[in-house]
Each structure stands twice: as C-alpha cells, then as structure tokens.
Amino acid sequence: MSTEDLLDCRAVDLARWLAEGRVEPREVVEACIRRIEAKEPEVRAFAFFDAAWLERQLEELEFERRMGRPKGPLFGLPVAVKDIFDTRDMPTENGTRLHAGRRPLQDSAVVERLRAAQALIVGKTVTTELATLTPGPTRNPRDPSRTPGGSSSGSAAAVAAGMVPLAVGSQTNGSVIRPAAFCGIYGMKPSFGLVSRRGCLVQSFLLDHVGTFARHLEDLALLTEVLAGYDPADRATSLRGPLRLYETCTASPPVAPRLAFVPGPGWPRAAETTREGLREIAEVLGERLVAVEIPSPFDRIVEAHRTIWTADMAWHFRREYAAGPGGLSDGLRAMIEEGQRVTAFRYHEARAIRETCSRQLAELFTEFDAILTLATLGEAPDLSTTGDPICCTPWTFLGLPAVTLPLLEGPSGLPVGVQLVGALGDDARLLRTARWLETTLSNHA
C-alpha cells in the first residue's frame, strides 16, 4: 500500500496499524497534507489549515511516544473540527465576520477529548454563518456545483474528499445528517447529552448536539465513543457506564431487528426517486419493516422546533444582532427577529409538544429497534442553499440518536442518504442496527 492510500483506509484499521507501529504517524500526516493541498482549492472545506502547525503537533506526539506515554485510541489519526468548537491554538470564528480573529484561551470539551485520545487536529472546517442556514464557500466533492449541505459543510466535505478520515460537526436541526447524506458519507447525531457542548457555539441548549462524520460506520462508532462522556459544565450530560459503541456496532444482533418506517414531515416533498428508493428497501426487508403513523401532536413538531430554535437563537445571538445590519446576513437577522416575537406561551407550548412526542416515541421503541426514514428530500441542490433540514427536524427536536447511511443514488448519480433513528440513550444498538441494515441490503444486492 502506498502512503497516499492510507487516508482511504478505514480509520479503525489505520488506528490499529499506528498503535502496532506498522504505520508511522508522519506517513499519515504527510499524506493528509498532500491530499488537502491538492483538493482544498476546489472543495474549500477549511476555515483554518496550517501544514506547519500540523507538523508541530506531530512532533509533540512523537515526543510523547518516546517518553513512553500509552497510546490513545485515536493515536496519530487526523481529525478535522468544525469552526464553532473552541481551540486554544487555532482561531475559532464561527463562520461570521463579527468573530474574525477570535482566539479562545481554552479548548472545547470535544477538542480536549480528541487531544487526550492523541488525535491530531488537522484544522478548523467551514461552518455556515453562526451554524445556521446561510451557505459558506464549501463545495460538494461529488459535484462542485452542488452544496455539501450545512451547517457542518466543511466537516462533511473534508471527509468525503478524503482529506481526513474523521471529522466533528454539530446539529441543531439537520446540520450533520443532511451534509453527510449529500456528500455520500456516514454521519451520526448522538443522543442529546451524550457529548459535552462546553466551548461550542450555542444556538439552543435544548437542541444543540455534537455530531461525527466518517467514511465507514465502524469509524463513526470509534470517534463518537471517544467524544462521549460526562462533563459537569454541560448539564445535559450525565454519569454513565462504558458505552462500548464500537464493540456493539461490530457485533451481530441477537435477533434480526424490527424497524418502523416513519415517512416524516418531508415525505410529501421528497423527490419521487428518493421515495422509490425507500420502497425498494422496504421490499427487501419485508416483514422486518412496519409502516407506523405517530399520532398528534407529532404533526406539529416542525412548528414547535422552529419556535424554540428561533427564540433561543434570538437570545444567544443578541449581541451579534445588536452590531447592526452589516454584521449578519439578511436571512439570519430575519430568523432572529422571528425569535424575538415568540411569546412565552408559544415557547412553553412547544416544550409541551416535545415532552408528549418523547413519550410517544419511547413507547414505539419498546416494539422496534429503530425508525427508518428519509435523511434528505433528494440529491444535493445547488450552491444557493444548504438544502432543507426538514427530514432531520423531528429527531433533533426530540434528542434521539440518528445515523445516515449512503445507501441510495439519485437520478444524477449523486448520493442520497437513508436515516435510522434510535431510542434516547440507545446509541450502541442504533449503530448495530445500522450495520445490520447495511449488511442485509448489501447481501441482497
């Protein structure tokens, strides 16, 4: 295998070879730098990348190895981080000119865990403006005339282009699942509270999640397991035993899973080819897939999410809004103004809808291992938008773990993801079910 091919391997294999000394971290870093320098001019995935600084991190890692420090689970693996997570040694500008040149003094919890696992932070990936809907400069590696999705645009594109094997993003609506689906890779939004958000840009404490990207499902499990854990600075997290996401993901389920098919609010507007792809999957799964209709108030879930999202955004972005019309895009200012008009009654009504729907879904998961649904309405649209997040909205709103798998292809030959949603806190079983689904469909094909 050539050095250049290393970045195309599974991250779990690369991690094992690095730990065993069969591959040197320097080989991986040099391959990473060459790949970024070759592809970045077209893809534009990075808000900050400095090859010299990456080399400096490598020197520190090699020094620690010589001193006999035990190797971490991500030893020598390059990981890209969305530019809304604080990094003490790199700028964190949150995709807005208002934060240009911002230099945090401390790492975010996510970056701390990556460094503790001995990953190499390659750079900061492009986010849309304050991680909302206004597109950034990143292009889809599958077709540069198309969007990579958002708001974790650069993270998804960097992994899809083979610049890095792993990347971190965030999701408050559809910002991990959607770009992963558009770019033809795997994306995971873990359960609410599984990963600490300390040191991450805040839109909504009720809706913000950390997410992960990879080109293989097992790699997604490895990275998410490293990031998960309790942090007293994030009240959504809690003490829990070992998750064993990777171990469970790679194990066979004791019995064949049962899936619930929930069309979701995006189904009426989805491309016919996308709907047909889901029907073909249903034919393969047969009695293992059952169509389920979730009763009201599930039909109001998109409205309720929007109420909480915009109201929380209006509060957390109040200083940026006060800077005046020139600081933010017209679209984001309009969303903030929408949030300013949300009444206390509507906000609490939306939270009540969230609680009711959470109980309904908890009951559903006593019968089914996961929900099968759309990840996006279809192929990636053009660069004027990051795409509609509606297929992700219900599951983000309820804090449920979700994974997108690159199982379908659109009429232009571009990838279309399929989304699996699991019970709250049952991330390991969701990953195992996702692997079962992928294997089942692959064997059928």
Describe the overall structure:
This protein has helices at 11-20, 25-43, 51-66, 109-116, 153-160, 177-183, 217-227, 245-249, 272-285, 301-316, 318-322, 330-340, 344-364, 393-397, 427-444, and strands spanning 46-49, 78-82, 120-125, 166-171, 186-189, 209-214, 259-261, 289-291, 370-374, 402-409, 415-421. It is α/β, with parallel strands linked by helices. The protein has a domain at 3-247: Amidase signature (AS) enzymes (Alpha-Beta Complex). Helix 2 (25-43) packs antiparallel against helix 3, helix 10 crosses helix 12 (330-340) and helix 10 packs across helix 13 (344-364).
Write the layout of secondary structure elements.
Blueprint: H1 11-20, H2 25-43, E1 46-49, H3 51-66, E2 78-82, H4 109-116, E3 120-125, H5 153-160, E4 166-171, H6 177-183, E5 186-189, E6 209-214, H7 217-227, H8 245-249, E7 259-261, H9 272-285, E8 289-291, H10 301-316, H11 318-322, H12 330-340, H13 344-364, E9 370-374, H14 393-397, E10 402-409, E11 415-421, H15 427-444
Helix pairs in contact: 2-3, 10-12, 10-13
CATH topology of the domain at 3-247: Amidase signature (AS) enzymes
Weakly predicted, low-confidence segments: none
By DSSP (H or I, 4+ residues per run), the number of helices equals 15
Order of helices and strands: HHEHEHEHEHEEHHEHEHHHHEHEEH
CATH superfamily of the domain at 3-247: Amidase signature (AS) domain
Task: Please describe the biggest sheet, giving its number of strands, its sense, and whether it closes into a barrel.
Answer: 11 strands, mixed
Strand content: 5-15%
| Global Rg | 21 Å
